[in-house]
């Protein structure tokens, strides 16, 4: 260990969709050590996606121990630990045994499609939108809870008796860290609660009427807290005694880590899916363009900050699909080399509506297409079309944000695994016609959780201190002919239309 890394430190756990990791940061927001471990993706049926929550909790404990060991530090050096998590992934567990009653149902899972249509009744997707900011979609947690209560024998009775706890992954991790069956804290933060479809954005509390409509008993719901406060202490393991001091859904954590603290500032995180959030300050902006309204963050007793969000279900996952299911590449980075070997997409467009289309369409009947195929098209053209799909989907979201908020995007801060792909970043700048900026620390999700935890325990004095830490690593500027951009966008939108209405209602 070098002198540059003298303590104190803040640790952050990122419980993500494909892996869990722990990162230790110093005062300057620099990474001291990292440990990471993947968990199994379980696909019981087409459209169903599950995780084993016990496997995830074991992995979390391992990566925390690993990061501490790699950093050569002790619990005494760690002032707080923050949590960030894959959002909407839904778990019910028995509070007396600590055992999950079923695998966690992952955000990408579409098994609640029919239930969501039924819940929409004569109103449709907007039935709970005014209160929750969300459209009725299989993406969110509330309907997933209802599905488990309806489909697991005896579960509803146990839930109404008060023996069952519901949580998104932040709640599961915090409950276990703070003691589990021995006094574990059953809490969630406002950002995660705002993704369940059960929280009222205006009151920041569970909405009893909606819970009733969804037939989710209030007894299972965690207590809603701010995103930055001490929820409890770690009870055992290498960090025993360290305060657990923040929780933020991964996309909100990235907004925070990118220091988008002013109205109109936006970030886009490129992971399994892609999520673009724009800070809208104290204003709850209802979207008429297919975005969702969500809580950006809430620091302790301060007023909540809201944001508009555009969610894209499949971006990085499309590259994984090219690798694992299609065998067109052997490693994810290879896609850039392959795509760069051709000048353009050769007329091909890939729309990865694997689990329907998220924003701005919210169409669960859509399925993926590759359009515009001719004999001319090679796997290199397909690779290029795969990267372009991520950029075009982002463009659709930024267009919707401008419509809803009236704020023109002037630049886009990006983060996440895919930002190491320079061709994709240049394409993004070309398609959006704005500069694309990547910060020094690309792990902004973990950084955001660390920042919030650090604020909660006074490790950093205020958000200005955090802004001072933000450093630019790279910037891409647009140089695409506008006529060509418009022409390509037109064909992209044409390809998107071809995905819709693929599934008949009775099978979706």
UniProtKB/TrEMBL annotation:
Binding site for sn-glycerol 3-phosphate: 17, 87-88, 139, 250
Entry binding sites for glycerol: 87-88, 139, 250-251
Protein name: Glycerol kinase
Main function: Key enzyme in the regulation of glycerol uptake and metabolism. Catalyzes the phosphorylation of glycerol to yield sn-glycerol 3-phosphate.
Gene: glpK
Superkingdom of the source species: Bacteria
Similarity-based family: Belongs to the FGGY kinase family.
Every Carbohydrate kinase FGGY C-terminal domain range: 267-456
Pfam families: FGGY_C (PF02782), FGGY_N (PF00370)
GO molecular function: ATP binding; glycerol kinase activity
GO cellular component: cytosol
Binding site for ADP: 17, 21, 272, 316, 417, 421
The protein's enzyme class: transferase
NCBIfam families from the UniProt entry: glycerol_kin (TIGR01311), PRK00047.1 (NF000756)
Keywords assigned by UniProt, alphabetized: ATP-binding, Glycerol metabolism, Kinase, Nucleotide-binding, Transferase
Pathway(s) this gene product operates in, as recorded in its UniProt entry: Polyol metabolism; glycerol degradation via glycerol kinase pathway; sn-glycerol 3-phosphate from glycerol: step 1/1
Annotated source species: Streptomyces wuyuanensis
Catalysed reaction, written as an equation: glycerol + ATP = sn-glycerol 3-phosphate + ADP + H(+)
Regulation of its activity: Inhibited by fructose 1,6-bisphosphate (FBP).
Residues holding ATP: 17-19, 272, 316, 320, 417
Gene3D superfamilies: 3.30.420.40
Domain Carbohydrate kinase FGGY N-terminal: 10-257
GO biological process terms, semicolon-separated: glycerol catabolic process; glycerol-3-phosphate metabolic process
E.C. numbers: 2.7.1.30
Keyword presence, Translocase: no
